[in-house]
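WARN retry 2 of 3 for item q-0093 after timeout on previous attempt; input resubmitted unchanged.
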Amino acid sequence: MFTGLHFLLTYTCLFKCDHCFLYCGPEAKGTFTFAEIDDALRQAIDAGIDTVFFEGGEPFLYYPIMLESVRRAKRLGLWVGIVTNGYWATALDDAELWLKPLKVAGLDELTISNDEYHSDEPSRGTTDNALTAAKSLGINTSCIWVDQPESADTECNDHVKVMFKGRAVELTESVRRRQYSVFRECPHENLAEPERAHLDPFGNVFVCQGLSIGNIREKSLKKIKRDYRPQDHPIIGPLLRGGPAELAEIYGLPQGTDYADHCHLCFLIRKELLSMFPQYLCPAQVYGISDR
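OK item q-0093 returned
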């Protein structure tokens, strides 16, 4: 069961990227207070977590909270990473000013989103400044490049394909559609024994964004892990037995041939099931519906 926990420090972001599967943006609601993070970190230690990431949204928008969270996590003995779009690295000297306190606090890794969704000129400007400054300070770095749906591989560290969920469902126009029945597995998440989970500002614990297995404000993270019975979960169970196609068949939802991939079908089905399973499919804003 998962030993990594990714804090969605905030749903707020400077950008409204087309590929964002959390519908993050300037108007998105939900940000951790430090007290909430402190409580969650203590629960994480009790639950056997050894690795945490702070991401979003854009975590650097709440820099003091992020910085103190890194300090606290390191004092508790956790390995700590941050995922950012690097907007703050407007000059190399400035980037070093942002990163030095994080280095002192013990930050282990900085991951930069570096693709055409975040910049018209990837691998230049703020991204280069952030990566160069981090390396000069001895902080491990990596970058994430999300491909355009129709593009071939290009040169970057960690290539990932667009996952057609959240706002990214709007990118499916140029993608070949297939019959629902071919999507008989979840190829991206190990739902039976997840290695990491995400925690959002409302306390939801996700094994896939928007797919909750509990809330740490109602039940401790240790108990959520201990009591996880994936086969009994009304969404995860069908996904394990037969993927998104099984989910569609069980709940009698539209099937047809209009789906780009597994995530596309799964997301659209889950969105249809929001009112039936609000405790498992939440918050509604990650499905493009304002609920707060």
